[in-house]
Amino acid sequence: MTTQSPTTPRPVRGPRLRQARPTSPRRGHRGSRPRRSPLLTVLTGIVLVYSLLPLAWLLINATKTQGDLFTSFGLWFGDSFALFSNIAATVSYDDGIFLRWFANTVLYVVLGAGGATALAVAGGYGLAKFDFPGKRGVFAVVIGAVAVPGTALAVPTFLMFSQMGLTNTPWSVIIPSLISPFGLYLMWTFAAEAIPRELLEAARVDGASELRTFVQICLPLLAPGIVTVLLFTMVATWNNYFLPLIMLKNPDWYPLTLGLNAWNAQAATAGGEAIFNLVITGSVLTIVPLVIAFLFLQRYWQSGLAAGSVKE
Amino acid sequence: MTADARTEDRPVAALTAPPPGSGARVVTTRGQRYRRREVLLALAFLFPNLVLLGVFTYRPLLDNFRLSFTSWNIASPTAQYIGFDNYVEWFTSSSSQTVLWNTVVFTGAAVVGSMVLGLALALLLDQKLVGRNAVRSLVFAPFVLAGAAVGVAFQFVFDPTFGLVQDVLGRLGIDAPSFYQDPRWALFMVTTTYVWKNLGYTFVIYLAALQGRRAELDEAAEIDAASTWTKFRRVTWPQLRPATFFLLITVLLNSFQVFDVIHTMTRGGPLGDGTTTMVYQIYQETFVNLRAGYGATVASIMFVALLLITLAQVFLMERGRQK
């Protein structure tokens, strides 16, 4: 597919976007004397501390016993290194309810974020690569939905699920997670750029079925976009709080976020068992899986996100 | 495979540039602009999305407006139509002023704070530094953290008896403000926490925009020996315009909806509504006070306000671009 045709510009449907390609001219070679204002450096140093210190605090304090938590300096380790006993206590407390919450979260993420990504890929591809009447209307519907704050729909959504008798079941958390307007938008901009139209024409001329074209030719080209959308829908479902809070009453169906809050509320009430070390260690265990996922998939989401946002 | 023979024809085919709708082996009605097959395929790919958007976004949106004109105890089966009473109540009640003020302060500080700080960090980390990639990932990390976990953990940072802030200020001989009793400091606390969490997002977007900027403009500025500030103001900042616009809209939409940090840290308090924003008020009225109709009213007002702000942003951006 190297059609060098200067007379016919490539037909680009949908939005144009600039992608950060490694081959594009960049100012990788800075001048030999990069002037830097000392003031800016100092200010940015402060911001850097601001952005890293709380994370350090959290990790350090997950290694402390309940006693050390209250007596030792917040930014240094306590007398004993209790990280592993804290983890053991967290996962075994109350018959291992934390593991149950962990499994619930994984269930909601796999079905909710996985489903949302699959739908966004199909929809973005359909929007970017096919012509049909009413396309502008569909764009408007998608963009409009990006601007609708999900929290503003809490009351009618609860009403709908309550009428269907689905509140207090996993479905009330999974089903609304299936739609991600932002993911759909991101996938559409990505597919418009990543799949040349000639490639599809060629595949059709060669007699490949549409499904085969989609699966064997287009999906690999869409991979960075898919990873980006998957990561962001994962963050949304893993961290989801408002929706499960209004839908779920039974702690057995709580995701980690709600469970942590329940522990926290218990620790703060008079007479409740003080489990502050479990609350902190639980917080760390809740955030670590996503941080690891993002670190490992860094190069995918950075390019995918850049493509979606730098568009003019 | 007959593909080999056809490969030769392709450049020619591309040169003659078939208009969309022709150049196909599909049987089409003459004069029809769209290929039926394409339309059906598009429908197949888009149908589930459109159904879900209809059922879980647009229908609830209309439903919400309907409910906002009712008095409805969420525990009872029936809602009673009361016209504009809820709206009148919201716009005349004194607690709405507090809620509105909290929302404006929280959202404004979140947008300005995280964008300015994110840009500053992106400018610094765009340069060559040791361990740059690791630092980038660390700065981004807070964005993916669960707001609930952050809120739960940050209570300890701000704790009045053993928290980090109290500890550090104490060593400097300063009395820590009472973050959990004084509404203004409570609002400051949840806002700083959210800005911290959101910083990674603005940083990554600005960094991507910085790395996509054009090399020759930078070089031209360096040849002209422009000062750092002039170079930023005249060369870099204009190129960051699309990213800034994108961030303005998305950060505003996101920070308007922050709930988890507030719910875990302060439950909307102290003094009842010290850190209650509009989103928190929706929750409080609907699910705690059981006034679902009134909650829907707050949601409707919030939705219309957000829509107007977003449209104004798009309008200003378009006008700015045409200049």
TrEMBL record, chain A:
Transmembrane intervals: 39-60, 72-93, 105-127, 139-161, 173-192, 213-238, 274-297
PANTHER family for this protein: ABC TRANSPORTER PERMEASE PROTEIN MG189-RELATED, ABC TRANSPORTER PERMEASE PROTEIN MG189-RELATED-RELATED
InterPro entries: MetI-like, MetI-like_sf
Location relative to the cell: Cell membrane
Family statement drawn from the similarity comment of this UniProt entry: Belongs to the binding-protein-dependent transport system permease family.
Chief location category: membrane
Gene Ontology BP term (one): transmembrane transport
Keyword terms, alphabetized: Cell membrane, Membrane, Transmembrane, Transmembrane helix, Transport
Membrane topology: Multi-pass membrane protein
Domain of life: Bacteria
Protein name in the entry: Carbohydrate ABC transporter permease
Biased composition (Basic residues): 13-36
Origin organism lineage: Bacteria, Bacillati, Actinomycetota, Actinomycetes, Micrococcales
Organism of provenance: Actinotalea soli
GO CC entries: plasma membrane
All copies of domain ABC transmembrane type-1, residue ranges: 102-297
Stretch list, region Disordered: 1-36
A UniProt-annotated Pfam family: BPD_transp_1
